[in-house]
């Protein structure tokens, strides 16, 4: 660990810009105010968050530039960037935190690190079927105390593999050096944090004409005319799709009725989308999805094994030349753990990130911890995959082709660590700052939602805010006709 010679945030952003579109593709510039360390973490949470947000903002500004608009000056503050990572925890729905709105709030409360015979493991129970898998293997009731006793009867690897085999998700807390030797880490290390790749032929598709209102405070919609299918769940994918919707894309979110996201999660990720059911296990659901694909520009997916439904990136490119297929995965969709589920916290546990965090918190030696924002990869991945999708749309407009965009949560952790760590004694005494990120309020079917906005300031445009979220399955699976 070091506290010297860390690359500035501007360098992190420049590195992202090269991956997304190449040098000189955007003339707009980003200024970041403040820098890490600003919280008790050895990792550069604010700096990398600001860079990810800046990457998305530059691509959105680039859409305007591609239409002939002047470049913009974009401003992001480090404290706002840090707060964006914990946006879901700062939101309120009718004055209640989203995490309290689950049908069974204990589901989230059981997500934690548990001791094993040889270390620590993260067990996740966000959904009932995941909790059932964990508790079936542990042969204990779903209480933290019982799970903590039962987990110590196992080695970490044994418990990890048994939970996965039972249909759950779990991962051993590795050190960073252990992770570097892991087959998944080696697979991910060969890939950039966001992959933007042309995978097939397709026609040039110019960006739609700018649709702008002079009376609506959210009148700047640079992505208007772009149709997007949001086949994602939890946080990273849905937040990415909400970003696209906020800047004008027409987004239809699809889900299966028997595996709904908790209502609180839907509230903080669903703004501006229409919600339709499309259960891909059945012909009727696949027909609904096929109808959307016929006019989709972007398909965003966060589910595993969609190729069995003909929805892999190459399959989509063959049937729908010119489509942009974006995926958010934890471990890499075609890597050694491509068939395993994963979540934000699991990526932190696996990569050594959590053990580094634990070393700063004054915990007993070798005990892991999540970052002080609690969430990390979900929001970083959301901005990165959205930036990749917009970059692919811009490239399609000048190069043609079908495109694939990929972001993996574990790779995001590795990316954050790659820009250097602060020594524990350098950050251990820093207090977690009070949130200062500007919030917005919107009223909709779920009630009154107050949550952090998109903390990016554009010099020539007002930053839009998300529209109200709607309930699952309440819309038809069709895109709007913007010419009507």
Automatic annotation (TrEMBL):
SUPFAM superfamilies for this protein: CoA-transferase family III (CaiB/BaiF)
Gene3D superfamilies tied to this protein: Crotonobetainyl-coa:carnitine coa-transferase, domain 1, formyl-coa transferase, domain 3
Keyword Magnesium: no
GO molecular function: transferase activity
Alphabetical UniProt keywords: Transferase
Top-level division of the source organism's lineage: Bacteria
Pfam family membership, one: CoA_transf_3
Protein name: CoA-transferase family III
């Amino acid at each position: 660990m070091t506290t010297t010679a860390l690359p500035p945030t501007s360098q992190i952003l420049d590195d992202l810009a090269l991956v997304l579109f190449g040098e000189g593709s955007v003339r707009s510039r980003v200024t970041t105010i403040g820098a890490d360390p600003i919280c008790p973490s050895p990792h550069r949470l604010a700096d990398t968050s600001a860079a990810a947000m800046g990457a998305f903002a530059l691509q959105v500004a680039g859409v305007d530039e591609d239409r002939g608009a002047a470049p913009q000056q974009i401003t992001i503050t480090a404290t706002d960037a840090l707060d964006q990572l914990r946006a879901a925890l700062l939101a309120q729905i009718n004055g209640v935190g989203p995490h309290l709105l689950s049908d069974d709030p204990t589901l989230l409360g059981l997500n934690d690190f548990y001791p094993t015979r040889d270390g620590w493991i993260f067990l996740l129970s966000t959904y009932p079927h995941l909790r059932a898998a964990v508790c079936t293997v542990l042969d204990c009731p779903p209480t933290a105390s019982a799970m903590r006793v039962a987990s110590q009867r196992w080695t970490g690897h044994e418990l990890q593999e048994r939970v996965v085999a039972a249909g759950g998700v779990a991962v051993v807390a590795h050190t960073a050096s252990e992770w570097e030797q892991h087959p998944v880490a080696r697979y991910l290390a060969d890939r950039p944090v966001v992959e933007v790749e042309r995978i097939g032929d397709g026609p040039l598709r110019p960006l739609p004409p700018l649709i702008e209102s002079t009376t609506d405070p959210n009148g700047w919609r640079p992505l208007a005319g772009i149709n997007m299918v949001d086949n994602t769940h939890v946080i990273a994918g849905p937040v990415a799709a909400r970003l696209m919707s906020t800047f004008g894309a027409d987004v239809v979110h699809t889900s299966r009725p028997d595996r709904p996201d908790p209502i609180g999660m839907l509230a903080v990720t669903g703004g501006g989308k229409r919600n339709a059911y499309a259960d891909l296990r059945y012909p009727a659901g696949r027909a609904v999805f096929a109808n959307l694909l016929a006019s989709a520009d972007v398909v965003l997916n966060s589910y595993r094994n969609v190729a069995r439904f003909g929805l892999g990136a190459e399959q989509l490119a063959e049937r729908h030349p010119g489509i942009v297929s974006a995926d958010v995965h934890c471990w890499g969709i075609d890597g050694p753990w491509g068939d395993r589920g994963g979540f934000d916290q699991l990526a932190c546990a696996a990569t050594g990130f959590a053990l580094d965090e634990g070393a700063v918190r004054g915990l007993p030696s070798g005990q892991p911890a999540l970052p002080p924002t609690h969430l990390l990869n979900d929001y970083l991945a959301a901005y990165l995959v959205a930036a990749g999708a917009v970059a692919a749309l811009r490239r399609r407009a000048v190069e043609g082709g079908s495109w694939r965009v990929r972001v993996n949560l574990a790779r995001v952790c590795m990316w954050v660590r790659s820009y250097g760590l602060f020594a524990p004694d350098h950050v251990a005494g820093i207090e977690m700052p009070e949130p200062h990120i500007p919030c917005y309020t919107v009223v909709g079917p779920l009630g009154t939602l107050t949550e952090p906005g998109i903390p990016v300031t554009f010099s020539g445009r007002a930053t839009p805010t998300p529209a109200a979220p709607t309930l699952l399955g309440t819309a038809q699976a069709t895109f709007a006709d913007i010419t009507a």
